């Protein structure tokens, strides 16, 4: 994986040279309070925040790798999250979504027993979404700004 690889598609991770080895040997779990997807509108892209209705954390299937920075030679670790086709709920905003795992899937994912076929769209009944400020798109917004996940009216 390179430092510029943010997402890996569930349907190709077992074959793509960039992810094939990590898929076999270096899997991880990425905890998240939620995630953003953007919808194209006539006035620009509108971000939406997705999370669980009950506030429980989400867990995204991921891959990690270690590589050497070509400029410094320093070993670095990076990860990529795996994305899959969207369920009907998420599909209203975007055609892809993170491959979310339940706690029952953690061991089989990490051990390598679960294959790419286990990375399906997640049960939509426990998800919520709402529009958030377009400041999410700004590199000037602080990453720890709690207002970036506040619901807005559009």
Structure commentary:
The chain is mainly β and 154 residues long. Helix content is 10%, strand content 36%. It is built from two helices and eight strands, in the order βαββββββαβ. The strands form two sheets. Strands 1, 2, 5, 6 and 7 form a five-stranded mixed β-sheet that branches. It has a three-stranded antiparallel β-sheet with strand order 3-4-8, with no helix packed on it. The N and C termini lie far apart (38 Å).
Provide the gyration radius in Å.
17 Å
Largest sheet: 5 strands, mixed
Strand content: 35-45%
Shape, please? globular
The total number of structural domains is 1
Q: From the helix content, strand content and strand pairing, which structural class follows?
A: mainly beta
Fraction of residues in helix = under 10%
On the 0 to 100 scale, the average pLDDT is: 90
CATH architectural category? Alpha-Beta Complex
N-to-C SSE series?
EHEEEEEEHE
Name given to the CATH homologous superfamily: SOS response associated peptidase-like
What's this entry about, in short?
The protein has 154 residues and is mainly β. The chain contains 2 helices and 8 strands, in the order βαββββββαβ. The model has no long low-confidence stretch (mean pLDDT 90).
């Amino acid at each position: 994986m390179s430092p510029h690889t943010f997402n890996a598609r569930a349907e190709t991770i077992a074959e793509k040279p960039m992810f094939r080895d990590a898929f076999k040997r270096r899997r991880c779990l990425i905890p998240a309070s939620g995630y953003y997807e953007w919808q194209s509108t006539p006035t620009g892209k509108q971000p939406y925040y997705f999370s669980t209705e009950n506030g429980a954390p989400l867990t995204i299937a991921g891959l990690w790798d270690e590589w050497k920075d070509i400029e410094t030679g320093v070993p670095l670790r990076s990860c990529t999250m795996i994305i899959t086709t969207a369920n009907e709920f998420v599909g209203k905003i975007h055609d892809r979504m993170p491959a979310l795992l339940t706690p029952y899937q953690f061991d089989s994912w990490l051990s390598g027993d679960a294959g790419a076929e286990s990375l399906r769209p997640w049960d939509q009944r426990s998800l919520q979404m709402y529009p958030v400020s377009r400041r999410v798109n700004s590199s000037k917004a602080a990453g720890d700004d709690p207002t970036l996940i506040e619901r807005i009216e559009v």
